[in-house]
Amino acid sequence: MVALAAAACTSDSGGSGGRISVEEFEGKAKSVTAGAPCPFAFDVAGALKAAGANRPVAPDGPAAEGDSSPAEPAQPARPSGPTSPAMPAIPAVPARSSINCSYLVGDADLSLTVIASPAAKTAQNFALPLLMHDGAMAMDQATTFVSTLVSPGSARVTPGAGTAAFYRVPVSGDGDIGLVVSVEGHDDADAPLPDLTGAHLETLAVELGKAVKG
């Protein structure tokens, strides 16, 4: 996972009005306090309607949670010693930050997690553990999922029941930002929700992703 997260090449830069920069996002993430309202104006009701899901919406506390992690330097390989095993080299991991906002939509939990990094093309990889968990992806499915980057302004749903989606946010300047949208029913977590999975969830992710802006 660390190797996947550290893989980065070039960036998609924007600068057009409304696009958010990674620096702006990092500021929002650091300013989020427990129980604070979501810093993004997600129109969940409107997005649900566009996705064909007629569900009531209510905040599901905590309304927002923020997190920031500094960059981690590369670690060289270490040969085995008298009391320690050999360790492979570990690549550098870029800094990253995230904001999570939760909503109750009918009988389901809707989780919106925005992940950002100043390193190019890394948001999708940083989102992978969450996508694997919420999308119930096996390792081979996860490898396939991240083998092709989602284009800025587009979304991709996890394979199988399609319970999680990744939307790549168009950014201003360098870096990368992505939105993970996932749903879980209250009655049976293993039962898919027809109006909040697959193509419906992809549309929902695209609509909600429009709110991640400066």
Q: Could you describe the largest sheet, including whether it forms a barrel? A: 6 strands, antiparallel
**Cα-to-Cα separation, first versus last residue:** 30 Å
Secondary structure: helix percent = 10-25%
User: Ranges with pLDDT <50 over ≥5 residues?
Assistant: 1-15
- Backbone shape: globular
The quaternary state of the protein chains shown equals single chain
What is the structural class? Answer: alpha+beta
The SSE string, one letter per element, is HHHEEEHHHEEEH
Using DSSP, what is the number of strands? Answer: 6
Q: Within the largest sheet, what's the order of strands?
A: 1-2-3-6-5-4
Strand content: 15-25%
> Helix tally?
7
Mean pLDDT across residues: 86
**What gyration radius follows from the Cα positions, in whole Å?**
18 Å
Region (Disordered): 53-91
Protein name: Lipoprotein
Structure description:
With 214 residues, the protein is α+β, with helices and mostly antiparallel strands. It has helices at residues 2-6, 22-31, 44-50, 123-126, 128-134, 139-146, 198-209, and strands at 57-69, 96-105, 108-117, 155-157, 164-169, 176-185. A 6-stranded antiparallel sheet has the order 1-2-3-6-5-4, with helices on both faces. The protein has 7 helices and 6 strands, in the order αααβββαααβββα. 25% of the residues lie in helices and 24% in strands. The protein is globular, with a radius of gyration of 18 Å. The longest helix is centred in the C-terminal third of the chain and has 12 residues, at 198-209. A hairpin with a 6-residue loop joins strand 4 and strand 5. Residues 53-91 are annotated as: Disordered. This is Lipoprotein.
